[in-house]
Design goal:
The chain has twelve helices and twelve strands. The chain is an alpha+beta fold and 371 residues long.
Length: 371
């Protein structure tokens, strides 16, 4: 399960998504480490290996699923200990099956659980023993550690699924000495019929205020530093460095960047120098080591919002360029700031978010007072 553990590696300039989980490496002692799994099927366990090479490391015991009594272990920089009455739920086969599922999930493909539920749907649509056998095989292909999560029902876990694939008179994996009764089987059928109705309703449900994700593809505003305005700048016009004068308190600044850095400094004389800088680089460099104006960190987002509003209000052609992005997520590149920029998915992307806010205001201006 990938959960929220999202990472990536770069391969030949391509970003390969991945995730990670804990594992023990046996290199003399046992070492608790992170096992990185990537969408292209490579696994980093103290070195990148293919899935087949990883299976060999499991067979050799170098990646350990057995934890011997009294064995020494460590977590780098954290602790050392000895195992006392260790218990583990993993076998080499289960760990490999879970990793295969993770690779499927990273690629947006159905994993073993998804394939099982698809086989169950096929059986419910055509209730033949052949289809039940296929559903049963798909159920047992789910790693044993993941089966009780298959239905997403933590009250009943996977019991209805066990009963359905066993059928009346059959036995389940967890109760091999008890036959499934007709009554229990009928309840399982009812469960899946109700579940299908619930899923169908969930898919057709539209949020009251519209979709949660953008319809238009994301717009990436990569760093660029044009010296002159263009007749057709495209999305470059949305950059703060784009030459589009803005006025604040009677002072005109050549770009949003000039205005932002000028307003950030406490010294009035330096503020004038920043405003008059011959480039956005110079403006930033002049302001970078200066004392910030009072309470700047709390005010800077409001200041940037006002500057962007001033820019797109004063320059209708730039407002049209912003509106042309429709409802796209705007990803703003800023190598100097993980606050203002996206920083390859690790930054807060405040500039992009504020551009989306101003775009929304331009699309439908809000009256100063509610009517």
């Amino acid at each position: 399960m990938t959960g929220n553990r999202i990472t990536y590696r770069m391969a030949d300039g391509v970003r390969v998504p991945g995730t990670w989980r804990h594992a023990f490496i046996r290199n003399f002692d046992h070492h608790l480490t992170d096992l990185f799994i990537y969408a292209d099927g490579l696994i980093d366990c103290w070195g990148l290996v293919t899935l087949e090479e990883f299976e060999e490391k499991l067979r050799s015991g170098w990646v350990a699923t057995e934890l011997p009594e009294g064995a020494e272990a460590s977590a780098f920089g954290l602790a050392r200990w000895k195992f006392a009455e260790p218990q583990t739920w993993l076998t080499p086969e289960v760990l490999v099956a879970e990793i295969r599922d993770t690779i499927d999930q990273l690629n947006g493909r159905p994993d073993s659980t998804g394939r099982c539920l698809a086989a169950v749907d096929a059986f419910l649509a055509d209730r033949t023993e052949e289809k039940r056998d296929a559903a049963r095989d798909a159920y047992f292909a789910i790693p044993v550690t993941q089966r009780h999560y298959a239905l997403g029902d933590m009250d009943r876990k996977d019991r209805p699924l066990q009963v359905l694939v066993a059928g009346p008179g059959g036995t389940t994996g967890r109760r091999p000495d008890e036959e499934v009764t007709q009554d229990e089987y009928d309840r399982a059928l009812s469960y899946f019929e109700e579940r299908a109705e619930w899923i169908a309703k969930g898919r057709s449900r539209v949020p009251a205020d519209g979709p949660a994700t953008a319809v238009a593809p994301a717009v990436h505003l990569y760093e660029s530093y044009p010296l002159e305005p263009s007749d057709d700048p495209g999305t470059k016009a949305l950059r703060n460095e784009y030459p589009a004068p803005v006025e604040v308190d009677g002072v005109t600044y050549p770009t949003v960047t000039h205005a932002y850095w000028a307003l950030s400094v406490a010294d009035p004389a330096l503020r004038e120098a920043v405003a008059a800088a011959d480039s956005t680089f110079s403006a930033r460099n002049l302001a970078a080591d200066a004392d910030r104006s009072e309470d700047w960190e709390r005010r800077r987002t409001a200041v940037m919002t006002a500057l962007l509003r001033a820019k797109f209000t004063r320059h209708p052609e730039l407002a049209r360029a912003l509106l042309a992005t429709d409802d796209a997520t705007i990803v703003y590149g800023d190598s100097d700031s993980a606050f203002w920029g996206d920083d390859r998915g690790r930054g807060r992307n405040w500039t992009g978010r504020l551009l989306e806010l101003v775009r929304s205001e331009l699309a439908c201006p809000i009256p100063s007072r509610p009517s």
